[in-house]
Specification:
Blueprint: E1 8-14, E2 17-24, E3 27-32, H1 38-48, H2 59-72, H3 91-101, E4 109-110, H4 111-117, H5 124-132, E5 145-146, E6 151-152, H6 160-170, E7 178-179
Parallel strand pairs: 4-5, 6-7
Antiparallel strand pairs: 1-2, 2-3
Helix pairs in contact: 4-5
Length: 180
């Protein structure tokens, strides 16, 4: 890998597999949950961030990686202080992600609860679309968002609902989950 750069992307190992992280001067440009292999994660990062090259993360990004790895092992870190580059994220999505970032490890909210918290109580489906487009998982912990009644549905990471459930259990979530 080339030397540390002010912008770039890197892969890192986690308990759920090889994840990716992209950064630039304003903050994290994106985080990618593990794909089926490191090569697939790398390919996905190149597709998502075509202008970035794989590089050694600078100190702040390396620290973020360590915290993400620890969180995926069960550390109770909400990662809320990590700076995100929200370029290209709509104001609606930004509001949704702010609420999702506030969900503590081991806790969950439904799409409808998030919609109510952003002042759009009839927008549960729009919240679901925003969560599905989340470019920062697990820093924006979309795995903590459930369908009404605790339904585990629509998780786009490799492994789908099984990955979501494993992440929630690692955090010690105690809710009764309904797989849909």
């Amino acid at each position: 890998m080339p030397a540390s750069a002010s912008s770039g992307f890197a892969l890192f190992d986690t308990p759920i597999g090889p994840c990716g992280i992209a950064w630039g001067p304003p903050g994290l440009k994106g985080v990618q949950l593990a794909e089926a292999s490191a090569q697939r994660t790398r390919t996905r990062m190149r597709e998502r961030f075509p202008g970035l090259v794989e590089a050694t993360p600078p100190t702040a990004v390396a620290a973020a990686i360590r915290r993400i790895e620890a969180m995926l092992r069960g550390a109770r870190d909400d990662l809320r202080d990590l700076a995100l580059d929200l370029t290209g994220v709509s104001p609606f999505e930004t509001r949704v992600y702010e609420v999702v970032r506030a969900i503590p490890p081991g806790e969950t909210l439904t799409y409808g609860e998030i919609a109510a918290r952003i002042g759009a109580p009839t927008a549960a489906r729009a919240v679901g679309r925003a969560v599905g487009r989340n470019p920062f998982a697990p820093v924006v912990p979309c795995h903590r968002v459930l369908a009404a009644g605790g339904g585990l549905c629509g998780f786009s990471a490799h492994g789908g609902v099984a990955t979501k459930l494993a992440m929630l259990r690692t955090e010690g979530a105690r809710a009764a989950f309904a797989v849909r």
